[in-house]
Specification:
Oligomer: single chain
Helix content: over 70%
Shape: elongated
Distance between the termini: 38 Å
Radius of gyration: 22 Å
Length: 93
Amino acid sequence: MILEDLWSGRFYPAETVVPTTPKYREVNREISESMEHLRARLTAEQFALVEIVLDQMSLSHSMELESQFCFGFAAGIALQQEVGELLRKQGGE
């Protein structure tokens, strides 16, 4: 149950939800292939720098997704409240 998982700290949608589309798998395969090409062509120091940049980009992207999720969730709750208010007003007329 989601409420129990929230309460106990076991609710991690960002870690458990992974796209299952073929395009997602294809993109990740292409990323892996590109990384292997870079590993073969760059020095160890250069490749380490590429990995650092990618890690920082991933962290930045995760922060953006978190903000977007929070905004979307709050907007959904606000929409639900607004609809409820409209329905109450229509029912009272």
